[in-house]
Structure to design on (663 residues):
């Protein structure tokens, strides 16, 4: 039988398919992000666009956590730690950067103007730094698994939180900041008070742009050799090794990829709230994200989107129950876990379910009948 | 020695076979699990490894594939030293195996199990994957194409979209072989491929194993308790007991070897009240008779 590499040359796609498969999804992501920002946001009003922001950030964070917990099957409960790292770095760049370079503390420039480019740079910087921490957390996962790894990741989250709380106070007056060079301000992250007055650059466009890019990349990963290697690590590590998969490498890749987007999520969160309080991004935040992944279905991209949407919107709907809303929320979670312990989607994607296939088949039959 | 081309170096030791194992030993504490195990598998050879339960057969496989590191001894895969390397490096070097207690990727579909293994022969890394470059697209297409052909050879194409864990037992064993072959191995280690199969399934599997050598150019080392199968298809058999090699030779030689009979049936004692059952050769006599 012909080997894999002997077949590759013959199967190389032409230009249209290359563009369609490689570039088009990103173009669609940008287009959809625009639609959210310019059409849907204004149409639903201020309250609901705020909720949409939360949903988008939750999709980004839970979607990135899904790579580690769902794909690779490593139980991480320190995701908020990566958020905090990303958030701090981005806030440091935008707050002190705007003062140094633009002389103001408020957002500057229009769409993709200087201010937003600085913010974009902050997001990427935050993501990169978080992914460096991803390597550090990924390394113990080579020897530990299950509960033991969970404890290590929990410890990591707490360490980042405490380190954040012992940073120096944040100079807030423009004149004070201008006297100190940027690099010396790296430790002035607000300490226990938190980093405040972060310029509110986060818009629906940025949130959904990053969320859609993550979804595209998560999809590409899942349906490729690299992603299947992660799934194999989850399913049976010994067999995965015996099939030539470097499980060590696979796990570190999962952590790095996941941490990168968690860092970006943290940046978006910081620039939405306007303040970064380490107490807010502690253990409970990590657990919230784990719940989204578990409820949606571990390893399912569509499951995470559904889970994030439900778990952000549900407490808002229960708002009328006032004091009892967290009880109602908890009851909803318990109900889902009793009825579908594998999560709403299980390990499947929406388009892999029998219901979806049946609908598509029926639709096709109808279209053919119409002609 | 039948089949394959084995060159002999002046010193007389076999070199450049598909697999050369020299004096491999492993002890767990005071227990010698494997001692001085040697074997030379020629290219295209089909050799057997048998022994009573707990003799250390699977331990030998685990040593060869890097699950355990040998205390002493060397393993060469087509002239390349692989002992002491990690399992994934050994697999990439061209050694694939199946497991006695089936280890499939249960939640994944049948074809994805095979695709996962085929993925190790791809060149595109994480960034090419995330950007879906033409090379990556071509490789994924090649994987799918080859995996469908593989499932076809193993006769489980009709089940390609089912979850691996939902397959019947016999098909799970076939899937394990398909997955091992997907890594494009030079040497295939089969750990009890017909365990738990009925006579009909065994007959099919025997034909299949024999055909693999031609179709894929692999050399096969086989662990099996089914003596009919082993005696029928293996060119040379190594018998181990308590980790020690007690006999090496052709199936005929092995059947007549007193040490082997003793290991399997025990030393005849006087006044032994329990008549010990004859081993496999008798039960599988009809099958053996069919063979040319």
């Amino acid at each position: 039988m012909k080997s894999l590499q002997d077949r590759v040359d013959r199967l190389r796609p032409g230009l249209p398919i290359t563009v369609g498969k490689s570039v088009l999804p990103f173009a669609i992501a940008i287009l959809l992000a625009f639609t959210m920002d310019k059409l849907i946001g204004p149409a639903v009003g201020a309250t609901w666009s705020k909720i949409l922001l939360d949903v988008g950030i939750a999709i980004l964070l839970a979607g990135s956590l899904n790579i580690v917990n769902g794909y690779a099957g490593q139980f991480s409960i320190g995701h908020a730690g990566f958020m905090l790292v990303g958030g701090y770095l981005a806030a440091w760049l935008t707050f002190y950067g705007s003062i140094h370079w633009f002389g103001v503390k408020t957002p500057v420039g229009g769409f993709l103007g200087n201010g937003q480019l600085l913010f974009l740079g902050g997001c990427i910087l935050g993501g990169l730094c978080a992914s460096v921490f991803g390597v550090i957390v990924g390394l113990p996962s080579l020897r530990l698994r299950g509960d033991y790894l969970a404890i290590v990741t929990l410890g990591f989250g707490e360490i980042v939180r405490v380190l954040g709380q012992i940073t120096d106070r944040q100079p807030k007056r423009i004149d004070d900041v201008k006297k100190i060079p940027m690099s010396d301000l790296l430790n002035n992250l607000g300490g226990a008070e938190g980093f405040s007055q972060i310029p509110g650059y986060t818009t629906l466009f940025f949130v959904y742009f990053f969320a859609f890019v993550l979804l595209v990349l998560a999809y590409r990963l899942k349906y490729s050799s690299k992603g299947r290697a992660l799934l194999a690590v989850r399913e049976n590590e010994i067999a995965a090794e015996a099939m030539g998969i470097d499980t060590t490498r696979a796990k570190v890749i999962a952590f790095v990829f996941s941490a990168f987007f968690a860092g970006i999520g943290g940046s978006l969160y910081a620039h939405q709230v306007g303040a970064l309080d380490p107490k807010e991004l502690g253990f409970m935040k990590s657990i919230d994200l784990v719940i989204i992944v578990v409820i949606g279905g571990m390893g399912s991209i569509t499951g995470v989107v559904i889970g994030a949407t439900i778990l952000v919107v549900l407490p808002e709907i229960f708002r009328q129950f006032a004091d009892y809303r967290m009880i109602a929320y908890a009851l909803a979670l318990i109900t889902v876990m009793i009825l579908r312990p594998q999560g709403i989607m299980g390990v499947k994607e929406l388009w892999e379910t029998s219901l979806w296939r049946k609908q598509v088949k029926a639709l096709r039959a109808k279209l053919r009948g119409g002609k | 020695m039948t089949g394959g081309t084995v060159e002999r170096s002046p010193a007389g030791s076999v070199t450049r076979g598909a697999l050369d194992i020299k004096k491999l030993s492993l002890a767990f504490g005071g227990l010698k699990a494997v001692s001085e195990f040697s074997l030379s598998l020629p290219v295209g050879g089909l050799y057997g490894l048998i022994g009573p339960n707990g003799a250390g057969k699977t331990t030998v496989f685990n040593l060869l594939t890097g699950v355990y590191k040998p205390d002493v001894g060397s393993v060469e895969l087509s002239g390349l030293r692989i002992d002491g390397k990690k399992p994934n490096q050994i697999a990439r070097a061209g050694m694939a195996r199946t497991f006695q207690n089936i280890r499939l990727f249960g939640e994944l579909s049948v074809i994805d199990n095979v695709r996962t293994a085929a993925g190790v022969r791809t060149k595109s890394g994480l960034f090419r994957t995330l950007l879906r470059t033409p090379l990556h697209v071509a490789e994924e297409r090649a994987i799918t194409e080859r995996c469908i052909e593989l499932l076809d050879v193993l006769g489980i194409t009709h089940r390609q979209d089912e979850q691996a864990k939902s397959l019947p037992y016999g098909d799970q064993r076939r899937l394990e072989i398909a997955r091992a072959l997907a890594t494009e191995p030079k040497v295939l280690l089969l750990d009890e491929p017909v365990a738990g199969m009925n006579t009909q399934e065994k007959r099919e599997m025997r034909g299949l194993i024999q055909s693999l050598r031609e179709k894929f150019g692999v050399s096969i080392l086989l662990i099996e308790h089914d003596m009919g199968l082993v005696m029928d298809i293996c060119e040379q058999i190594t018998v181990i007991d308590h980790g020690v090699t007690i006999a090496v030779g052709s199936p005929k030689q092995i059947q007549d070897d007193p040490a082997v009979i003793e290991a399997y049936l025990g030393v005849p004692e006087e006044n032994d009240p329990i008549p010990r059952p004859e081993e496999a050769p008798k039960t599988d006599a009809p099958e053996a008779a069919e063979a040319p």
Remarks:
- Chain A touches chain B at residues 1-5, 7-9, 11-13, 17-18, 21-22, 217, 220-221, 223-229, 231-232, 234-236, 238-247, 253, 257, 347 (CB under 8 Å).
- Chain A is about 70% helix and 0% strand.
- Residues 24-71 of chain A form the longest helix (48 residues).
